[in-house]
Amino acid sequence: MAATTDTQHEEQSGTDGPAAPAARRRGRAGRIVARTVSVFGELLITAGLVLGLFVVYSLWWTNVVADRVAGEQADKVRDNWARDRVGSDGPGALDTKAGIGFLHVPAMGDGDILVEKGTSMEVLNDGVAGYYTDPVESALPTSGKEGNFSLAAHRDGHGAKFHDIDKIEEGDPIVFETKDTWYVYKTYAVLPETSKYNVRVLDPVPKESGKKKAGHYITLTTCTPVYTSRYRYVVWGELVRTEKVDGQRTPPKELR
């Protein structure tokens, strides 16, 4: 019995020997690591939720808000046009207070895009297209003068009016609607990618599109690739004809 008791005592003493503190330290270290991993995981989940909400805001909610604002502005323009009719069949004078007209590009989908003056974020964030006043001044088609009617709009967020610009191909129509005239352009060149600092694409004679003589051109620009602003996507068109707007605002055949 004594031998057995001594052996048990030795075994019990062995568990409280030099190895025990090391084991306890390893246990504490493991618990610390586990807590750290848990906290880090929770932070990652929170960051993911915040990022997800930001993406929803940027790519969905800004579209909702911009479309609402653009719709209200477009209604004002068309209401002004209706009130200022000249005679029973005439459209009246052009209104420029809330917008100068509407862009129609069947390749990008049905509907119209209100066009306003300027290409600042303040203008474009309202879900419209804006014509350039800087660094190259756009030539308005209503002036009757030769030049380049150059426009910009967002490709993602804030209405994303030019999101499907890559669907436009050579030969596709681009129509600009004013109060009294339809301006019908035909796409003749596309530049899928160029520097965002390349302002030559806006020149009155856009030589990068292959043109060498003055004419009546239209240029659409937006950011590319989608969801970035690294480069610019450019589409050029040339005026092929104009049509007077009738009392029913019958669209040209390209839009029917």
TrEMBL record:
Active site: 154 (proton donor/acceptor), 223 (acyl-thioester intermediate)
GO molecular function: hydrolase activity
Record's protein name: Membrane protein
Naturally occurring in which organism (per UniProt): Streptomyces mutabilis
Keywords of this entry: Hydrolase, Membrane, Transmembrane, Transmembrane helix
Region (Disordered): 1-25
Membrane-spanning residues: 32-60
